# Entry
Amino acid sequence: MRRCSKTGCQGDALATLTYNYADSTVVIGPLSRRAEPHTYDLCGEHARRTTAPRGWEVLRLALPERYEPVAPQGAAGAVPPAEAPPTPSACAAPPAPAARPGLRLVRDEGPENPVHS
# Structure
């Protein structure tokens, strides 16, 4: 259980606050699955009372009424099974073998070697 990031608050975290500096937006949404750098976990009261700096917009996503634990990633039954990955024959073209590990072939797209799609 994560706690609210506000100093002195011991409330259970219910929301995650993220600053989007490029758009001058504060996003307050449901608690993220794991703590991330540059985000802030907030209790319900602090999530409701948080305001944005002057000139910024606040985007508030719907929050649950109470904390609901989420199974950690990789836990059995937490995520529905995904579709099987495509078989190699279904891929458009296999990658060219590299001459040395870490290197890949890049074809010249000049007028003498046009690339057709």
Q: What stands out?
A: The first strand starts at residue 15 and ends at 20. The helical segments are 44-49. The chain has a mean pLDDT of 76. The chain has one helix and four strands.
